[in-house]
Amino acid sequence: MNTPVTLSREIGGRTFTLESGKLAPLADGAVQITSGETSILVTAVASKKPKEHLDFFPLTVDVEERMYARGQIPGSFFRREGRPSETAILICRLTDRPLRPSFPKGFRNEVHVVATILSADMENPPDVIAITGASMAVVLGGMPFEGPIAGLRLGFRHAQNIDGTFRDEWILNPTYEETEGCVFDLVVAGSRNSEGGVDIIMVEAEATENAWTLIQEGATAPTEEIVAGGLEEAKKYIAELCDLQAEFAKMAAKPVREFPTFSEYGEDMYAKVVQLAEKEYSEALTIADKANRNTAMDEIKERVKSEILLDDAMAERENEIGAAIRSLTKNLVRKRIVNEGMRIDGRTTDEIRPLSAEVKFLPRAHGTGLFRRGDTQVLSIATLGMKRMEQMIDTLDPEESKRYMHHYNFPPFSTGETGFMRGPKRREIGHGALAERALRPVVPSEEEFPYTIRIVSEVLSSNGSSSMASVCGSTLSMMDAGVPIKAPVAGIAMGLIRDEGQYVTLTDILGAEDAFGDMDFKVAGTRDFVTALQLDTKLTGIPSEVLAKALGLAKAARLKVLDVIHDAIAEPRPEVAEHAPKIISVQIPVDKIGEVIGPKGKKINEIQATTGAEIDIEDDGMVFIAARGGTAAADAEKLIREIVWPVMPEIGMRFMGKVAGLTDFGAFVSIPGGKDGLVHVSKLGFGRTRVAHPSDVLENGQEIEVQVMRIDERAGKISLAPIDPESGEPFEPPERPRGEGGDRDRGRGGGGDRGRGDRGRAGRDRGPRRDSAPSSD
């Protein structure tokens, strides 16, 4: 058993602790990294034998969330963790992206990195801690690695000084609570370079959910200049975290082992391909149309392959031919861009492909946006629903539910290929999350717009930057659905080519330029500030001025895209779509929730059955009422208000009531305030006709206008009179003289106590005689 080794250091006001030698002793490298009370065990294991037949580096990163880390039992049916959550998958991608390019080219041993979250304090996010921990585990395992690398988060906020003035500042690894007060959240990974400086390898950034509100209150907006400043600020912390790992490695790392590396092709094979096809490939790469270009290049490839295989000396090296052709294609594309400023499809370096935008594409959808940029086409569909449709989250993230969701689908046909469709892959989850982050700052709050919002982006055709096209399509679909977003958001993907020390930035990259280039830099935002950013690079480092230039070019391109979106739909529609539910929100006192629900849900179910509306009641007394068309939502709101804030009836008040029951002697009518009153049968003919039974003129549920005539507070009875449609006045039958049987009439109607008393006395006087006529006064 190794002797445990521990090293702690405070960096930027945060304490980081590395410990090795206690846990997972059989892993090649294992480290427990802790910040605050969030602690992660990260292990790294490399296979003993390489996978020579592969043409890529077989690296796998897994993040294991354990609910015991927050002292909680999983909420699933099986009460144990299942497949990785989206949060875990996004951390996997965040860790993989800077780790993968830091291994040597041609390295083919399988490497498996596992980050197990052992403790989560619900204050310090585990994602950036996992990046640094993965680097440390690989270094400790003695693998060939151009590290260490460090991951960190910077939060940009408008902070108040002691004297009442304000300052803008970047804070290192803000807690969840501190992030709520920031306008921008910037995740950066980087490493030390040979000159002692810092190279940035990966960036993932977003404007926070509260950014729009904070900016309106005076905070500085995260412009391109602010973001560039944040990248510079990150370098000093990256340097300190890398130095911490280097010091720990001297204490605990295994010696770097010898691992073989493999070339995809021999120099002689590359020379042969150049000899046979360089001129033809140069001409084919000038064909602007992707399909025609690919057809021409496939024909060249088959001819070259056939000629090479005729050579007995090379016949057994068929697997090298494709890699050599790919390398030649890459070199030709890059040289043309650097030397001529011309790209594969004939565009200049800062030119955007043709754009188009369309809304109201599907008749039944709540909102649709069809966006096209060159060969890339994305159809985004917005669906609005009740609050109960929000996504419940059972992870180590403090967020328990999500009312705005973005899902991204990338089927094989979008690139003209065949393939399997078995649910969303990690790439699709990552691209969907990027588009979701880009739009989250402009989505209205629940108080402003009480809907759950789901966007689905269907990639119908892809030739680069489909994730940014989904941002544009989603903006269109939400405005089409009537979602009052704060501002439209557009996205653009930038690229970079470096050749002989010269950097060329590309606007709106193609798929091939992404594959053959040195950087993929996606930027989304409004006209005024950046809402999301993602950068991956294959270079060891990119100068700050190059990144700043790329940000500036991205903004210019983004503004052009926003103009196209504006032409399709200038602003959100004033009302939600015809087929979307109409939702009304009402805040009621918490102590009134029980009255609205009623015993065993009787009252709320009655309201829903009567009106046809759907009702959700939150624990804080917020009531959401939804209905599709008509007045159902308004009717339900009225009934709820009558329960919560009843109108106490007084004599002379008029109401529109609803018939609640019919008896031989009259109709019971429900009036606002949850009260019932009686309309006597003698009043239903308005003195013009005799009504034998109330059912002759009324039915249950029928609305009738009535006026309160008498209130017996002791007995809790209310006497109502119907409003005569001819006179507009309440009808009460005139009282008859007592000799004409008026008392007896009133007695039969249930309203003449004296008549009943007279008959009672007469009966007692008559004794047992039952056939005698009643006496008269």
Strand content: 25-35%
**CATH secondary-structure class of the largest domain:** Alpha Beta
Q: State Rg.
A: 37 Å
Helix-residue proportion: 25-40%
Uncertain spans, ≥5 residues at pLDDT below 50?
740-777
Shape: elongated
- Let me know the largest β-sheet: 8 strands, antiparallel
Q: In which order are the strands of the major sheet placed?
A: 8-7-9-10-21-20-18-19
Mean of the pLDDT scores? 89
Structural class: alpha+beta
- CATH hierarchy: architecture of the largest domain: 2-Layer Sandwich
Number of helices: 17
CATH fold title of the largest domain:
Ribosomal Protein S5, domain 2
How many domains make up the 3D coordinates? 6
How many beta-strand elements? Answer: 29
CATH-assigned homologous superfamily of the largest domain: GHMP Kinase, N-terminal domain
Compute the separation of the termini in Å: 116 Å
